[in-house]
Amino acid sequence: MFKKLINEAIIEYKLETISPLFVKSGKETGLDPNLADNVCLKVYKDGVLTPVLPGTSIKGVFRSRTEKILKETCDILNSPCVTNKDAKDKSAKELYKKMCPACKIFGSTATRSRISFSDAYPENYKIGTRKCVAINRVTGAAKDKALFDMEYVEWGQFTGKIKLTNFFKWQIKTIALLFKEIDEGYITFGGLTTKGFGMMKVKDFKLKLRYYNNPQNANGYNKVGIYLEKEINGYENILNLLSRIDLFSSNELNRSDFNESAI
Fold first, then answer.
1. What are the φ and ψ backbone dihedral angles of 95, each rounded to 5 degrees?
2. Do residues 188 and 195 lie in contact, with contact meaning Cβ atoms separated by under 8 Å?
3. Contact indicator for 37, 67 with CB cutoff of 8 Å
4. Residue 168: CB partners within 8 Å, gap ≥ 6?
5. How many domains does the chain have?
6. Cβ contacts of 55 within 8 Å, gap of 6 or more
7. What angle do CA 257, 262, 263 make, to 5 degrees?
8. 149 pairs with which residues across the strands?
9. Pairing of the two strands 42-45 and 200-211
10. What was the pLDDT predicted at 66?
11. pLDDT of the residue at 150
12. Rounded-to-integer distance, Cα 172 and Cα 215, Å
């Protein structure tokens, strides 16, 4: 499915926090009295330590929600739809047809993903801290002498990119639907989500499409070198353009030939 480049899609987005965001760092703060006991994940960007929403975390959240939305998705850890043996014994098209909808987008242990997520960094942000107390899970009461400090992103606007290679229309619709679910509060990020953390809203969504195979009905596309290109703003417009794509249709989800018209 990847030997020949048929099409590409790049989504550029901006998410703004509407509740605190806590992505825990794996580093120990040790005995440094100036640091909170639990600090948020930061990496160096342009020489400055900056909070980050890892692409792997975003992909995990998107995959988990996709598995809940689409029918007949596999248990990738305990009962995967395809195995390493399948990858060796079957052709690419046979392997793709056997894959569940989630694995067709996000890949599996036996197959590569057609989608990639960049890390998302904040353009503007504010760090907050608060004192918390650990709870005894048996009694439900506060643990004695279990007070700790927690650092989190109090507010921030995170920008990132998602890229799909050799996509089908239903896959683009699925990703657009996930952004809608972010706005509706069904998708949250980071830790402590049961305490209300990790809620975000979509501030910007831009989809750039490229077709290399001269598809039918390529209205509004510009010829740029060897490909046709078009840009669409807003996930709502994507969902409107793909309103006839049925995400519960087996025929739609089992497409394996790139003969669709352009979006």
1. -65, -45
2. no
3. no
4. 255, 258, 260
5. 1
6. 116, 117, 118, 119, 120, 160
7. 115
8. 131
9. unpaired
10. 97
11. 84
12. 16
Distance CA(191)–CA(230), nearest Å, equals 37
- For 96, the domain range is 7-19+51-119+162-253
First to last CA, the chain: 20
What is the greatest pairwise CA distance in the chain? 68
Take residue 117 and report the two structure tokens written for it.
């997520």
For position 148, what pLDDT does the model report?
58
- CA–CA dist 165, 179 (Å, integer): 19
The answer to whether 165 and 5 have CB atoms below 8 angstroms apart is yes
- With respect to residue 242, please indicate whether it lies within any of the assigned structural domains: yes
Q: How far apart are alpha carbons 77 and 80 in whole angstroms?
A: 6
Residue 213 belongs to a domain: yes
In a domain, 156, yes or no: no
Burial of 125 (0-12, 13-18, 19+ CB in 10 A): middle
Q: Each residue's pLDDT tens digit in the chain (263 positions)?
A: 567 899 999 999 999 999 999 998 766 554 444 445 578 899 999 999 999 999 999 999 999 999 999 988 998 888 889 888 887 878 778 888 889 999 999 998 888 899 999 999 999 999 998 766 555 555 554 555 556 578 899 999 999 999 999 999 999 999 999 999 999 999 999 998 998 999 999 999 999 999 999 888 899 999 999 999 999 999 999 999 999 999 999 999 998 888 889 99
Angstrom distance (rounded) from CA 187 to CA 120: 16
Flag whether 30 is in a domain: no
Answer for the pair 168, 32: CB distance below 8 angstroms, yes or no: no
